[in-house]
Each structure stands twice: as C-alpha cells, then as structure tokens.
Amino acid sequence: MHVVLLGPPGSGKGTQAERLAAKLSVPAISTGEMLRAAVAQGSALGARVEGVMASGQLVSDELMAEVVQDRLAKDDCKGGFLLDGYPRTAAQTQTLDDILDDLGERLDHVIYLSVPEEELVRRALLRQRDDDTEEVIQERLRVYRNETEPLVAHYEQAGLLRRVDGDRSMDEVTAAMLEAIR
Ligand code: ADP
Fold first, then answer.
1. How high is the mean pLDDT of the chain?
2. How confident is the model at residue 170 (pLDDT cuts 50, 70, 90)?
3. What is the pLDDT of residue 126?
4. Residue 143, SS3?
5. How far is it, in rounded angstroms, from Cα 100 to Cα 131?
6. Closest ligand 1 atom to Cα of 85
7. Ligand 1 neighbour 88 (Cβ under 6 A)
8. Which sequence spans correspond to the domains of the chain?
9. CA-to-CA distance for 4 and 8, rounded, in angstroms?
C-alpha cells in the first residue's frame, strides 16, 4: 500500500498519518518531522534546512529528493508507506514517480484532506510552534496555495485522488480516510 497524504498546513495531516499508518501497518513518513529532527540533532542536513524552514519556504526539490530517496529505500518501506508532506511541488511528484518506478511499485491512493481556510488559520494560531509568527504561518499557506494545491488537480487527472472532509472530529476523519481507500 503506497499512499500520499495531501493537504494544507493545519489540515491535521500529521495526526491522521500516524493513525492511518497504524491501521494499514505501514510506516508514516513525515518529511517535515524528518527535517525538524535533523535540525534538532544539529546534523549537516539540519544546518542546510534550518533557515529555509523557519521562513515558511520550501527546502529545494534536489535536497528533498535525496532525503526521500534514502528514506524510501529502507527496509521498513518494503511493504508500502504513507507519505505525509511529500510531494509538495510538481517536480517532487515526478521524483516520487521515478523512485516508485525503480522499486517496481506505484502509488495506490492520494488522500486530500480538505479544510476551509479560516479553520486553517484558527488551528495554526492555536498550535503555534515557538518559532512561528503569524507572518510565517501566512507564508506557509501562500506557498501551499502556489506550489502544492495544483497537485490536487494533477492526481485527480491520474485517477488517484480521494477527497476527505477534514473539518470534523479526528475519529470521523480517520474513519473517512479508511473508507476512501477501501
Ligand atoms: P506544516 O507545518 O506546514 O504542516 P511540515 O511539518 O510538513 O509542514 O513541514 C515543515 C517545513 O519543512 C515546511 O514548511 C518546509 O520548509 C519543509 N518541508 C517539509 N516537507 C517538504 C517538502 N516535501 N519539500 C520542501 N520542503 C519541505
């Protein structure tokens, strides 16, 4: 089972990725979490991405390709995976396709968690991380709209998109996601 979770910042992707991955017995792979861990460890990767992340911008497609390629080659991904936070750009969809091709696999589902804009802003301000200003939150939403939202149409055309209403309780959303990929 190879699943991508798509949705704006604040849509609940991280929480739902963990829950769904447990149900599907595949690893939940969050690129945002991987990068934050790298920053916390003070690794070379962390040093390269820290400033970009703090500004709300995206890490370069080239660097992300290395990170994701390495991660998806690990043994725990042999039976599938649930990707949270990747792909985020058109170039990244191509990279993911190439990686899957090399593995002799293909994507099964892209779940799109849709949440109204005003709810996203409300949630973002509630769970604000220390380094997040409202400006950075707005920048993340802007980058999402410009770079990532177009992927919804891309995956819709590919017949892979499963829309799920994310403006409900966490349990209802998890149930709807499971139903969407049955
Ligand atoms: P959010 O806080 O928007 O839910 P994440 O936790 O998924 O975002 O990611 C945090 C930050 O990590 C992003 O704003 C971006 O700078 C970087 N990042 C994560 N995944 C990617 C990716 N696929 N491409 C580029 N940058 C990424």
1. 94
2. very high
3. 83
4. helix
5. 35
6. 7
7. yes
8. 2-181
9. 13
Q: Count CB atoms within 10 A of the CB of residue 39.
A: 17
Residue 117's pLDDT band (boundaries 50, 70, 90)?
A: confident
Give the Å distance between the CA of 171 and the centre of ligand 1: 25
Q: Quickly state the pLDDT bin for 135 (edges 50, 70, 90).
A: confident
Distance (angstroms) between ligand 1 centre and the Cα of 27 equals 18
113, 16 in Cβ contact below 8 A? yes
Ligand 1 site-directed mutation target among 50, 60, 72, 88, most atoms within 8 Å of CB: 88
Model confidence at 5, pLDDT cuts 50, 70, 90, reads very high
Closest CA to ligand 1's atom 10: 32
- pLDDT at residue 130 in the model: 67
Two structure tokens written together for 109? 């589902």
Tell me, in angstroms, the distance from the centre of ligand 1 to residue 53's CA: 7
9 CB within 6 A, ligand 1: yes
Q: Is 21 in the pocket of ligand 1 (CB under 6 A)?
A: no
Architecture of the CATH domain 2-181:
3-Layer(aba) Sandwich (3.40)
Q: For 96-152, list the strands marked E by DSSP.
A: 109-114
Size of the chain, expressed as the number of residues it contains: 182
Q: Is the pLDDT of residue 129 over 80?
A: no
Q: Does 85 contact ligand 1 (Cβ within 6 A)?
A: yes
